[in-house]
Amino acid sequence: MLFLSDNCIFVTVKFTAMKNFIEELKWRGMLHDSMPNTEEHLMESMRSAYVGIDPTADSLHIGHLVGVMGLKHFQLAGHKPVALIGGATGMIGDPSGKSAERNLLDEKTLRHNQNAIKEQLSRFLDFDSDANNAAIVVNNYDWMKEFSFLEFIRDVGKHITVNYMMAKDSVKKRLSSESSVGMSFTEFTYQLVQGYDFLHLYREKECTLQMGGSDQWGNITTGTELIRRIDAGKGYALTWPLITKADGTKFGKTEGGNIWLDANRTSPYKFYQYWLNTSDTDAEKYIKIFTFLTKEEITGLIEQHQEAPHLRVLQKRLAEEITTMVHSKEDLENAVKASNILFGKSTSDDLKKLDKQTFLDVFDGVPQAEISIETVNSGMDMIAALAADTGFLKSNGEARRALKENAISVNKEKVKEDFTITTDNLINNKFVLLQRGKKNYYVLVVN
Description:
The chain contains 21 helices and 17 strands. It is α/β, with parallel strands linked by helices. The relative contact order is 0.09.
């Protein structure tokens, strides 16, 4: 804005004070290490920082969420986040924390994965506004694909010694492991490629900070070293701790594998249940890391939880916040309704609203029996459904007694011996839910 006073022209510039990003990470338990003066550097003006994301799948999983939350907090603090999709590094494989070399991907697969990942990131980061700190996505394949091997070893490789590279923990662990697989030259050069990414973004995007998990410290500092040696510049490094579970099992893993952000890979119901079932210790840690609730709100929830742990206030709020953030409010409501089918009051109408995958997730592990569609078309009597054709109950006599005791439900509705199961009772044209008492379930699968 321009205005005149005493023949002088004054210019006012709109300035947004930087929030203290480092302090935010500290109280949330998200800061593991940072280079000296990183905090002061970030408080001086708007900065750009990047986090590398492995594109080996077309979805992020919850193991990526710490990095995504870190980028979001960075943006909320007034800075510009850069999400780097590791298209080139995805073709190599990072030795950090790995015991074997991973499969390499072709360009078509990497591009598909990049687009899918950006779509998921857009639920967290602002990419589309005209703000100076709007987020951007870059792919290191775009600047590495034309880089010849000779150019790379001449322009980059000569600045980092083998001694320096061998001293990295990720390299030493692989070389000292008992595995006979060893480490390929391809993997050994990974830190150089990642280091060059930082140099490139420093030059092209004024990116002065790289962030990542604590296992990435060696790769990140290789980048700061390249910036110092080649451009006589100053780059900064920051890492967050690797997330663990109190019981020693791996965070983000279940018997079925990763907990994905893609609803087609992990249903919103299973996603919600994962967080709902966390331990008290983990819930207190996770609610700081995986939500944007304020310090005051979280302190209040922890106090409520300590007063009445059986109400699981922390777990419920954690599951609500993160399911809504990753999926939607509607998905959360459906997940809660699905949970109530097993653990609360529900009706036949509630059952019929479940999609096929959610139904299977809710009743995962419940005994099943297959019956033919012809049997249902002609009407299936309750003795056959409970015992003769399914084995849910031990005998026809036990089935009759249970029916007389009013202990049997079909799709959550009490039935008598004269009830007949027909196609009108099918859930998703596929399932019938039998129940004896409150917790004894059985699923008929119609084929």
